[in-house]
Amino acid sequence: MRWLCLHGRGTSAQIFEMQTARIREALGRDHEFVFVNGTVPTEPDVGAEAIADEFFGYVAHNIEQDQDLCDNMIEFVESQGPFDGIMGFSEGGTVGAMMLVEDARHGSFGGFKCAVFFSAAPPFDPDLVRSGVVKSVDPDTDGVKLAIPTAHIWSRKAGADEIEVHQRLSQLCDERVREVFLHDLGHDVPGSKSDEGLAGTLRAIEHVIENAMDSR
Questions:
Q1: Are 10 and 42 in contact (CB under 8 A)?
Q2: Rounded to an integer, what distance in angstroms lies between the CA atom of residue 76 and that of residue 95?
Q3: Do the Cβ atoms of 153 and 190 come closer than 8 Å?
Q4: Which of 118, 142, 160, 215 has minimal Cβ neighbours within 10 Å of its Cβ?
Q5: Higher per-residue pLDDT: 199 or 111
């Protein structure tokens, strides 16, 4: 499978490669991972300065730039794809979810078969953003938007408000092909810091891959 990988805010593609190294190693050589930097320069996230020299995000918090975000990501997928899955951490996962909502509503521009979200939130509604309104997709009013297999991985040690945000993203996804795993690592991607967290993460991702393969 070929994965589009989107990093967290205040980090970079290089850092996300490092964060996911153990996961990618375990998944094996049948998978290709394409890491893409955001285009918005940011301040570094905690600890990022020790690893990299440049730090990015995808969301500009400027309506004109954010109106172009989804279309720019679509152009990247169309020029560099196809991709089978999206793997995103934090803001990168949220942007990935926005692309999948766009894909589900307006036709398959990417052919995505599955997604893995680490500590991500519900996405901006791409249709509303294009009209100048920044509002997240809401499972209470919009219902299930994503029918493809998804994995949702976050920390059980997160604050109640943060956990609710992660849960709301999961509620936008079809529960029949949805995997949820909670770890003890805080706002992070499970890897070398926890064998238990890594094992649970891999089980969730492998189930998602199996479901995606079965749906072909």
A1: yes
A2: 13
A3: yes
A4: 160
A5: 199
